[in-house]
């Protein structure tokens, strides 16, 4: 392993031991790379999320917290790009939370402020499958990958001051597992848990519902397929 990667992984582990910020790191990395458009090869895992105007869009509210937590680590691994560090922090967070080992390689390039992605590239939580397809197909994903990646909502919670929503999706939001799928399948929602319209959308059609059921029934299958989809997400718009 590259010495900078090893050092960053050690520092991230120290950070997660001290501060349970794994979920927001996963959200930071996803909001950086999820700006990708395969139509014109713009956006992607390029760290433009740290510049205004991209940092200021509503969808990215609160992510300065994650970037600030990573800044002292960046200083100690100066040779690593921000884009690599953001994605590594997410992969390491998922592993730390008990999730699958996600293949990772260094080599993402930081792009300048001028390459900030426009607003509107990330999904709207109040919308259902047609919208999710518009957004995720633009990144180059398919329906199965929409279901898999939504499973990352096993981690973390919504914050009223960031998104207007509130609460976690599962009873153990610092654990990466398949309970997100189990929860959304329950006919009676737990009043303490969150279900976004975009989460319930996965049950709207037979094909995606079957995938939710398969991942709820088989965590190993979820982990194996999630790791592949997440690696793809972490490399959108990048050449190695
Ligand atoms: C399918 C479309 C998606 C929608 C509409 C959506 C929407 C949201 C919203 C509204 C929040 C709450 C933010 C806050 O208030 O702090 C959130 C949090 C989160 N999202 Fe998503 N998301 C989607 C997909 C994803 C994907 C693909 C990933 C990662 C692979 C992801 C990872 C997370 C994580 C880990 C959190 C928790 C953050 C925290 O605890 O601070 N989401 N998402």
TrEMBL record:
The keyword Oxidoreductase applies. The keyword Zinc does not apply. Transmembrane segments: none annotated. Residues 25-240 form the Plant heme peroxidase family profile domain. Keywords: Oxidoreductase, Peroxidase. One of its GO terms (molecular function) is heme binding. GO terms for biological process: cellular response to oxidative stress; hydrogen peroxide catabolic process; response to reactive oxygen species. It comes from the Eukaryota. Belongs to the peroxidase family. This is Putative L-ascorbate peroxidase 4. The lineage of its organism: Eukaryota, Rhodophyta, Florideophyceae, Rhodymeniophycidae, Gracilariales.
């Amino acid at each position: 392993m590259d010495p900078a990667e090893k050092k960053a992984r050690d520092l991230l582990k120290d950070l997660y031991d001290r501060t349970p910020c794994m979920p927001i790191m996963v959200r930071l990395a996803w909001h950086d790379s999820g700006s990708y458009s395969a139509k014109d090869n713009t956006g992607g895992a390029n760290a433009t999320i740290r510049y205004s105007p991209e940092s200021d869009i509503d969808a990215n509210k609160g992510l300065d917290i994650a970037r600030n937590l990573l800044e002292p680590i960046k200083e100690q691994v100066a040779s690593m790009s921000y884009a690599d560090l953001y994605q590594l922090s997410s992969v390491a967070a998922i592993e730390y939370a008990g999730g699958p080992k996600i293949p990772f390689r260094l080599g993402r390039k930081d792009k300048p402020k001028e390459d900030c992605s426009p607003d509107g590239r990330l999904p709207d939580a109040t919308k259902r499958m047609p919208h999710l397809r518009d957004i995720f197909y633009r990144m180059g994903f398919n329906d199965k990958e929409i279901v898999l990646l939504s499973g990352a909502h096993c981690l973390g919670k919504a914050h009223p001051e960031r998104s207007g929503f509130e609460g976690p999706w599962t009873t153990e939001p610092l654990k990466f597992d398949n309970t997100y799928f189990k929860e959304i399948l329950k006919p009676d929602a737990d009043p303490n848990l969150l279900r976004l319209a975009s989460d319930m959308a996965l049950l709207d059609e037979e094909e995606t519902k079957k995938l939710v059921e398969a991942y709820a029934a088989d965590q190993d299958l979820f982990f194996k397929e999630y790791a592949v989809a997440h690696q793809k997400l972490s490399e959108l718009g990048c050449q190695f």
